[in-house]
Amino acid sequence: GNSVTQMEGPVTLSEEAFLTINCTYTATGYPSLFWYVQYPGEGLQLLLKATKADDKGSNKGFEATYRKETTSFHLEKGSVQVSDSAVYFCAQYSGAGSYQLTFGKGTKLSVIP
Amino acid sequence: EAQVTQNPRYLITVTGKKLTVTCSQNMNHEYMSWYRQDPGLGLRQIYYSMNVEVTDKGDVPEGYKVSRKEKRNFPLILESPSPNQTSLYFCASSFGANQPQHFGDGTRLSIL
User: Fold this and answer.
1) To the nearest whole number, what is the mean pLDDT of chain B?
2) Residue A24 and residue A3: Cα distance in Å, rounded?
3) How would you classify residue B15: left for phi > 0, otherwise alpha for psi between -120 and 50, otherwise beta?
4) Chain B contact for A103 (CB, 8 A cutoff)
5) Would you call the peptide bond into A40 cis, given omega within 30 degrees of 0 as the criterion?
6) Can you tell me the distance from the alpha carbon of B97 to that of A24, in angstroms, rounded to the nearest whole number?
7) pLDDT tens-digit readout, B29-81
8) Any CB–CB contact under 8 A between B34 and chain A?
9) What pLDDT shows up at residue A88?
10) DSSP-assigned letters across all residues of B89-103
11) Rounded-to-integer distance, Cα A13 and Cα B3, Å
12) Which chain B residue has its CA at the smallest distance from A4's CA?
């Protein structure tokens, strides 16, 4: 079946450091790809999305590019803040017309002042 | 405000005592889904519904039931809860296939 693999955490960075969280997917075709963020004690919020190859999703300084050739959707941010501390989930639908969203296991990010 | 509302937010109960977790959305979404979140396992889909009276199993449906009698509501039913169902549960909804899902704030269930 389809799966999403993201780098294991936890990840600890100093404020203003560069962030990369790797994510690879296995669905065939052109599934929509997402990054969700979960702040402590809250539900998941959509951070950004991309729906086709070479699309770049961006929000709140975070970016991720849909790379069909490497089946990847890595999350990046140039300068993290303490308020970015959260758990980040990469997710994919299995294909166009799909209702089943598959999540990675999550990566916990802690940003220290 | 557009939202997905789950109740209760926290529940501690005992093995075998039937319970229902309610989920309601006010966005007129056709699609709704239930997930459980466990440490080291991420989110796993329990059941989903593509529209009223249309439901299907996700990856981990054993021990759970759902119903979709109205578009806005999608309750999760545990007929005979067991300790291995202790988890954090999330309800989500979306307009349809391949669309971003909107999540509730979660329900933390502890089954003793």
Assistant:
1) 95
2) 9
3) beta
4) yes
5) no
6) 21
7) 999 999 999 988 889 999 999 999 999 999 899 999 999 999 999 999 999 99
8) no
9) 97
10) EEEEEESSTTPPPEE
11) 32
12) B42
